Amino acid sequence: MTVYPAPRVIPPDLYGKHDHDPTTKVIDTVAALRVRWSTLINRRPIRTRADDARFPVIVTDRVLVAQDQAVVDLGLRAPDGAALPRWAPGAHIDIELPSGRLRQYSLCGDPAETEEYRIAVRRIPQGSGGSIEVHDELPVGSEVMIRGPRNAFPFAPPGRGSSAKRLHFVAGGIGITPILAMARAADRLGIDWTLVYCGRSRETLPFLDQLAELRGHVLVRTDDEHGTPRATDLLDGADHDTAIYCCGPAPMTSALVAAVRTMPGIEFHSERFSPAPVVDGTAFEVELTSTGEVIAVGADQTMLDALLAVRPDQPYSCRQGFCRTCVVRVTDGTPDHRDGALTPAEHAAGVTLACVSRCAGKRLVLDL
Ligand code: FES
């Protein structure tokens, strides 16, 4: 049987409440020991979190997985065939594309397959160019550097970190990628699950064949057949003992967040395709203590984006204020904390998240 490592941090519910389940810690410890034992027995290299910050992989296969031919599914393996760092459903990797662009893609393969990662990418002609590059410039045999895996959308199945009894997934288009790995895990664990899978038309939806092989109930709901879905359509079958996992466009996720606020106690976890726009922003400055450099942050710009313009290596991941990757230390000035991840004590200690937080005055001084 596949052992899925439980997340170290059980995702909070919609109301920010954390459910601390001791069983999860035991499972995580056992899974970690299992990997170490496997290393000793097999004498094969297994990269760990300590040394996986950045490493090369080879594109070993490419498959078009939607009828409209616009979604490519890539297999990635280590050049020496070594086992890759383990991951759990919801995880993503950062890929350094040939142009230098850094893009994040959810892992959509099987966590039990230790020597291969799989990602799926929809070609977005009007996008920023990353998806076009993946489609056109990563043939089989090409080498790319990746970082991770990291998990900003952790999955805590019922009985393994969640008190829910069943799972309801909602996926919009290419948002199926993390959900596919979760559905596969739920299937293996024998958990009751349902999925509402939306898109413009069936031709645009990847992985319909793989979903058909799973035992959960999958409802495909396309705009051309059923019209634009309402939140109630997407939540059909979810009730108080259901944990909901949603990945898709921001309007869909926002509609579900609003709807589940009227369903007290329900677990709701989501990942958006893109960060929410800056709301009520005013311009300010950031000063770096190390160099004295002063960086202007526009009213509709995030502090992270302004930092990345001069410090391209500044770490980040979700860009939505929940993964804590972009944490920075403020030594002077008053931050306007807009995250949901740091505690009041951490805010008081002078840390903030650059992707969402701003300045309550004119200038923040940062010790990066
Ligand atoms: S990048 Fe994830 S919290 Fe800022």
From TrEMBL:
GO terms for molecular function: 2 iron, 2 sulfur cluster binding; metal ion binding; oxidoreductase activity. Its cofactor is FAD. PROSITE patterns: 2FE2S_FER_2, FAD_FR. It comes from the Bacteria. Residues 284-368 form the 2Fe-2S ferredoxin-type domain. It comes from Nocardia alba. This is Ferredoxin-NADP reductase. Keywords: 2Fe-2S, Flavoprotein, Iron, Iron-sulfur, Metal-binding, Oxidoreductase.
